[in-house]
C-alpha cells in the first residue's frame, strides 16, 4: 500500500511539473504589439462654449395707453411682417381723429374762400398767408391724430416667431408696457470666446482653410446640419479673461435653432508635422499620462508624455516621445517596469488606419 501511495505522489508531481512548464512556455511565446509614433499633418478640433441668438430679437411694447381689446396671435406662432397682432381700444383716439379731420376741413374751406377774395384784391396777401398757415396746422394735427390712432394696432415688424404673452385680454396698458417678444430665426448668431493664443493661430491659418467656416454641436451632442461662417470678431480683448469674442452666422432653414439655446462651436485647427499616437497606448497615474517605451534590449520603461491636442482615438504629443521610439500598444496591464518582452512590430500607418483620424 505504501508503494502504491508513493507512486501516485510521484505521478502527480511529474504532472504538475509538466503543466507548469507548458504554462511558462505558453507565456513566453506570447508576443505583444509594439508600434512607433507617426509624424504627419493633421487637424485638431478646438471646442468653445457658445450662446445662440436670433439675428433679430426684439420686444413689442405699447406706444399708447388703453385697454387691450383684442389679441390676434398666440404664443409660439409664426407671424408675417405687417400682420396685426394686438388691438388697443381706440375709441378716444378715433374721436380725436374725427375732431382733427373736421378742423382740417374747416381750415381748407376758409383758405379757399380767402384765396378767392385775395385773387379779387378784396383781402391782402397777408390774410391769405394766414389762412394757409391755419390749414397747414390743421393738416399736421390730423396727421398726428392718425399716427396716435395707428399706435393702437400692434403689427409685426418682420417675419418671426412669437414668444410668451406678457399681457392678457382686457389688461389696462400704460405707454411702454411689454406685450411679447419676436424672434427672426431664419439666421442665427452664435457667440463664443476665444483665448488670445488660439485667436492668433486662427488668424494665421485662416487663409489656408475654408475662410471662417465652423461647426455647431448642439446640446444633445449632435452636429447641426449646416456649417456657419465667422463674420465678426470684436475689436478688444477682455483684460480679465484674456479672451476675444467671435460671432458666427448659421443658416436655420428648418427652424431647429431658437433664441437662447446653447451649444459648442467646433473649429478645425491644422497641425503641421504633428507627432500622434493611439490613445489606447497611454495610461494615467495621478492625472499624468504615460506610455511604455521598449528599449533596444526589448525591456519596457514608463515615460511621461505631454499631450498638446486630442483627436478621436489619438493624442498629439508635444513632449516625451520622438518619432523613432517604440511604444507598447497592447498588453499595458500585463507588463512591469524593466520587464523583457517579446513583441511584434506594426507600422504606425497600419495601426492608425483602423482608428478615427482627421488628416490632410
Order of helices and strands: HEEEEEHHEEEEHEEEEEEEEEEH
Report strand order across the widest sheet. 2-9-12-11-10-13
Oligomeric category: single chain
In total, how many beta strands? 19
The number of helices is 5
Strand content: 35-45%
**What is the rounded distance between the termini?**
80 Å
Uncertain parts: 4-15, 17-28
Instruction: Quote the average pLDDT.
Output: 84
What structural class do helix, strand and pairing data support? Answer: alpha+beta
- Using only C-alpha atoms, the radius of gyration works out to 40 Å
Largest sheet: 6 strands, antiparallel, barrel
Principal-axis shape: rod-shaped
Fraction of residues in helix: 25-40%
Jot down its keywords.
360 residues; four-stranded antiparallel β-sheet; six-stranded antiparallel barrel; alpha+beta; single chain; 39% strand
